[in-house]
Structure formats: structure tokens, C-alpha cells
Amino acid sequence: MRNRWMRWAAAGGACAGIVAAGAGTVWYTSGDAQGRTVADTSASMRISAADADGASRYWTAKRMAAATPIDRVNGGAAGRTLSAQAITKSKAFGGVPTIGALFFNNGQGDHFCTASVVQSSSQRLLITAAHCIHGGKGKKYASKVAFVPKYDRGKRPYGTWTAKMLLVDQRWVSSTDRDLDFGFIALNDRSGKKIQKAVGYNRLAVNQGVGRTVNVAGYPKIAFDSRDRPIYCRTKTAKQAKYQIRMDCTGFYGGTSGSPWLLNYSYTTQRGDINGVIGGYQGGGNTASRSYSAYFDKDVSNLRAAADKRAA
């Protein structure tokens, strides 16, 4: 686990204000959790133009449809069950341009997660769960990585975007630390455009406490959800452990790892502030009704800064 001091605060606690830090990052200046990591702890892998071109050709509609989740339970039977009366129900929708399906191969098969465009100076970054990028201790980076914004029943309205760089925390690579289950992907330009210009972005929000209302969207596997569409849910966060938060909502089956938790979401602009991604404890959760995220503090913004520098 992360060897850093942390202090939690409930949402709405005493705050001295909100400070902008870096490209699109916000955090409270007091009464919050402050990460203490100052060194660059990132680990990354660059992807050659030839490999990126190969990934673009590899991901046919048939392969995308056949890809399987790398995580989460196969339906709601495994793990704990929660009272139906207490759980918000997810809804299927047509998706939004800033969130999409992330396809990759982990050396054992074709898989998918969920990822979101996050605001950055390079205008090339996605954020998702680290386990969608690298397998953790003793394992390797994903290959054939491709992102499809607003993927919906096989439709690709913004095309397929290939990766040029993958980045996670070195402590995830060395010990599969669930408190660091987040990472970034830099994308190649497509038709002369960067991903942020093409589809928009969500900002990165750190040190936001708990008890916050979030909109969460992701891509459950069709085998678990016959609607075969992205889903969303509006619910509240709660503290799970020192560096973990949780949210309760139905329908977050396999494929939703990496789904962004959006504060301050606007239905008009279809944007918000990313306060977490499904992952962390139990790989994101062993029931489709309760999902987890590593707590977003300065470790996340430091990692985003490292990714931004290497994204050029």
C-alpha cells in the first residue's frame, strides 16, 4: 500500500477554496487528503508507429464484438449481494464522446475496459484503471491498444484511435498496489487531430473527499447486459478504506473497469471532473452493484504530469 500520510474529509467540509493546478486539475486547499509523493514514480512504454498501425488494422468489428472483460464478475451471482431497495439502478444510453471502449490484448486474449479523455497540455491523454494497461507484478504491458470514443453497439462515430505511450505508477508494476490502480494512455493523432480537439475532455479532480455526487459511465459486456450499450448512473461516493472509495449502482459488470467517476457533470456540455475510475479494491468490485476506485490525490496528478511530458 502507499506509504504516505492521508487525512480524509467529508464532502462539504471546511475548505479554504479551490486551486487550479496543472492542466485542468483541481483540489481543495484544506480539510482534504494531500498526497506526499514528490518524486516521479511513473513507469511507461512507448509504442512504435508500426505497432500502432498494426493495432488499427487488428481491431475489426468482429474482434471488438468478441473481446472479453479482463475483470469484474460474470454477472451478479458472485460475491456479495446488496439490498435491491438500497441500490440506484444504472440506465443504458447512447454514450458521450469523451468516454469510450478501450480494446487491448494482454498476451492471453483480446479484452476491453472503459477509458475517458482527460484534459492535458498535450491534448492526447486518456485515464483508465492501471490493470487495463499493465498486468501488475510479474506481468507485462497491454498490446494492440485502441480507443473507440462513444462506442455503441458496434458503431464508431469518432473512429478508432491507437496508443503511442502507456504509463502507470512503478509501484503498480512492482507490487500490484491496488491503491495505485490508475494510469494514462497517450494517443496518436488521427486525421491531423488530437483526441482532445476531436471529442472534448473531462478535467482531473483530486483531493475531493467523499460523500460526493458522481456520474459514472462505462461499457458492460453484452453477455452480462443484453442491451449492449454504455450505461450511466448518478450516485454518491463513500469511504471504503484509507486509499479507497466506493459507490453503489447496479449493472457495472465486466468491461466497466476504468469507468470515470465524474463530479460536477453537466448534461449540457457532457463534461465533468474525474474523481476516480473503477478499479482498486477487488479489481473494482466482485459484485456488479458495488464498485471501487483508488482515492484520487496528488499521486494521480503527478502521474498525469509525467504522462503529459512523455506524450509529445
From TrEMBL:
One of its GO terms (molecular function) is serine-type endopeptidase activity. Gene3D superfamilies: Trypsin-like serine proteases. Keywords: Signal. One of its GO terms (biological process) is proteolysis. It holds the Pfam family Trypsin. InterPro entries: Glutamyl_endopeptidase, Peptidase_S1_PA, Peptidase_S1_PA_chymotrypsin, Trypsin_dom, TRYPSIN_HIS. Residues 94-266 form the Peptidase S1 domain. This is Peptidase S1 domain-containing protein. It comes from Actinomadura verrucosospora. The lineage of its organism: Bacteria, Bacillati, Actinomycetota, Actinomycetes, Streptosporangiales.
